[in-house]
Design a protein that fits this description.
The complex is a heterodimer of chains A (318) and B (332).
Chain A (H helix, E strand, L loop, with lengths): L1 H28 L4 H9 L8 H8 L5 H13 L13 H36 L4 H15 L2 H15 L16 H35 L2 H8 L4 H39 L4 H10 L3 H29 L7
Helix pairs in contact in A: 1-4, 1-12, 2-3, 5-6, 5-8, 5-10, 6-8, 7-8, 7-10, 8-10, 9-10, 10-11, 10-12, 11-12
Chain B lengths: L1 H13 L5 H15 L1 H18 L1 H4 L31 H37 L1 H15 L3 H12 L25 H7 L1 H27 L2 H8 L4 H37 L11 H12 L5 H28 L8
Helix pairs in contact in B: 2-3, 3-5, 3-13, 5-6, 5-9, 5-11, 6-9, 7-9, 9-11, 10-11, 11-12, 11-13, 12-13
């Protein structure tokens, strides 16, 4: 077990290192002379910019491996470089935006579990009932409804019929004004949770159905335990383990989904930062966002794997 | 009695094997009866493909034609789905936009399936050091959210202008309906999106293919094949490939909806196939968001188009999975 954890932990830096290699090789894909393009587009915003300074910022004057090494060494010291326009530091920007995305993703994850797990459990316990049928259709709808459509729908319909519910335009930090922050965050949170809940609901249901047919559940029934006890104590706990592994996959979907909702609702998170950076060719910012996001996902998956092996003692890793 | 039963069985064996077409028809009928939602999904897919291929003839107006006096009309008998700000006929734009849905959907899953089989198959079959290294690369690949990767690829490679590798509209095939863009030319236009999405999806797919190959590798018939002197390539192509085919088919259909959704997402954000070509995601993200409050149909129509195609494709994928390989049933 300890061996497994050690080996699994070792994979975290290896994967992050691999991601950094991938991310920094993106510049190689760019057609044309990057420095010229950036200078032409951003020169007007920053008079200190010269072709030479852009090349040295991006490391274009070095070969690929040196560039990668230098970039890594800089990041290790918390230096993600500066924006070409305006010269703000990318690291500072990341620091501001990461909490927004994490808040949105975290709140949505919790909300989707609160919605999905009870419905999934009930729909398995009352299999083929009206509740089951309804919740299955709902899950299918949740899986297919694009979150950007729901977002636009919300803005348009609420704006037309209940404008007082529209989120305030300027973003407010949660530490600065929790109430205004919540007013702004609740809608994207609900929409993101909605698109997530579908898959959690379906997995919970199918896992519960499997567990409910196990011998130990029959034993629990025949001991004369009440339904509530059988379901919550004996079944749900075991059905939850695969659901946990799904959450690992969902982190990916959560962060992907947040990019759209951040754009629709004007939340200054990592997704919006990536979109703006791509549009203005701020490649250092693009690289910064990608490496931070990948690191979060790799670490989350590591924690989920650990939790999995702790929760399910049947799993033995050699 | 026993003799008569035997006779019955023998007479059944005697019956000629139905032709391939008949067997397919029977299979389709069985599928439609047992999986009505799946059959509905198959219909949605077929309908979308047909509409996409014949879109220039189905569209009632050229998609770029402006009717400035008929700006922001509600759906009516002239403009079936209404018009947008510049008076473009929304029906025609949706019909033409279906080309992207079909091309990106089918193209992506085909490319992803081929790459998944190559990477996952070789990694699982050879095992050892090759497997370890390949899996670490896949680890890296799947640790970036697909939309983030896709946005980055697409904006780095570019989706406008001369298109991928300077192919532009692609070679002229002499078929150029009055409305301009037939699916053949759209294919070259969307090649960057298809290529990027296919490569991104292949990372996840190769994991599943690898798992299937690992399970099949343990069978005794593989050992038998090796004993009679079959080489690695022969075993992979003749013994393993046919057995992982169901997994690959399921994977492809299940990814179909996800591919369409991913394309719609980046088009919504303005990174997809560029103007003036009308993609569903872009109509929703541009006209729908800007003029939705005054003309709600601009939000309902493209959104519903995306929703129903993704819904149909998902249903088809689920049903095929249940029929071909129930073990893969999960939450998804």
């Amino acid at each position: 077990m300890r061996n497994y954890i050690l080996r699994r932990a070792l994979l975290v830096p290896v994967t992050v290192l691999g991601v950094s290699l991938l991310v920094s090789s993106l510049l190689e894909l760019l057609p044309g002379n990057v420095a010229d393009i950036i200078l032409a587009e951003s020169g007007g915003f920053n008079t200190n910019l010269t072709k030479g300074s852009i090349e040295s910022d991006l490391g274009l004057d070095q070969n690929f491996l040196t560039r990668w090494g230098n970039w890594l060494a800089d990041i290790a010291q918390g230096n993600f470089g500066n924006y070409f326009r305006g010269g703000r530091s990318v690291g500072g920007e990341l620091e501001h935006r990461l909490p927004v995305t994490l808040q949105l993703a975290g709140m949505s994850l919790v909300l989707s579990l609160i919605i999905a797990i009870p419905i999934g459990v009930i729909s398995a316990v009352r299999q083929d009932s009206l509740v089951d049928y309804f919740s299955r259709s709902l899950a299918i709808f949740m899986l297919a409804a694009p979150s950007f459509w729901l977002g636009v729908m919300f803005i348009v319909l609420v704006g037309n019929y209940q404008p007082s519910l529209l989120p305030p335009v300027a973003y407010h930090d949660v530490w600065e004004d929790p109430w205004l922050n919540l007013k702004q965050m609740w809608a994207p949170t609900v929409i993101l949770a909605f698109s997530l809940a579908g898959s959690v609901m379906r997995l919970t249901r199918s896992q519960m159905l499997e567990v409910l047919r196990q011998d130990y559940v029959r034993t629990a029934w025949s001991k004369g335990l009440r339904e509530r006890v059988v379901v919550t104590r004996h079944a749900v706990r075991n059905a939850f383990i695969p659901v946990l592994s799904l959450i690992g996959v969902q982190i990916n979907i959560l962060i992907s989904g947040s990019i759209v909702l951040e754009q629709i609702f004007g939340l200054p998170g990592l997704g919006l930062m990536l979109i703006n950076a791509l549009l203005t060719r701020e490649y250092l910012a693009v690289q910064g966002v990608l490496i931070v996001v990948a690191t979060i996902i790799v670490i989350t998956n590591f924690i989920v794997d650990l939790g999995y092996s702790v929760l399910d003692p049947r799993i033995r890793y050699t | 009695m026993a003799v008569r039963e035997e006779a019955v069985i023998l007479s059944r064996l005697d019956r000629p094997v139905p032709s391939l077409g008949l067997r397919w028809l029977r299979g389709a009928w069985w599928f439609a009866r047992h999986k009505p939602l799946g059959a509905f999904g198959a219909l949605v897919l077929i309908a979308t493909v047909v509409v996409a291929i014949f879109s220039p003839w189905i569209a009632t107006y050229p998609y770029a034609q402006q009717h400035l006096t008929d700006s922001l009309q509600d759906p009516n008998s002239t403009y079936w789905f209404g018009t947008d700000k510049q008076g473009h006929d929304l029906f025609s734009r949706i019909v033409i936009g279906s080309q992207i849905t079909v091309l990106v959907g089918v193209g992506t899953v085909t490319l992803a399936a081929v790459l998944s089989v190559l990477v996952g198959g070789v990694s699982g079959y050879l095992g050892g050091r090759v497997d370890i290294i390949t899996q670490r690369v896949v680890d890296v690949w799947v640790s970036l959210p697909p939309i983030f990767l896709l946005l980055t690829f697409v904006s780095v490679l570019g989706t406008g202008g001369s298109g991928f590798l300077g192919l532009g509209r692609g070679p002229d095939v002499g078929l150029n309906p009055i409305d301009g863009d037939w699916i053949w030319y759209t294919f070259f236009r969307s090649s960057v999106v298809i290529l990027s999405l296919g490569i991104i999806f292949a990372g996840y797919g190769s994991r599943i293919v690898r798992g299937a190959v690992l399970a099949i590798k343990e069978n005794t018939y593989i050992e038998a094949a090796r004993a009679v002197g079959a080489g690695d390539v022969r075993i992979m192509v003749h013994y393993i490939l046919p057995n992982i085919l169901p997994v690959v088919i399921i994977l492809a259909t299940i990814n179909l909806g996800a591919a369409v959704l991913a394309e719609a997402t980046i088009s919504f954000l303005g990174f997809g196939i560029q103007e003036p070509f009308p993609t569903w995601g872009h109509i929703l993200g541009d006209e729908g968001r800007t003029y939705g409050p005054t003309a709600e149909h601009l939000m309902w129509v493209p959104g519903a188009a995306i929703f129903f195609s993704v819904y149909g494709f998902n249903m088809l994928g689920d049903a095929l999975r249940d029929v071909l390989d129930p073990r893969l049933r999960g939450g998804r």
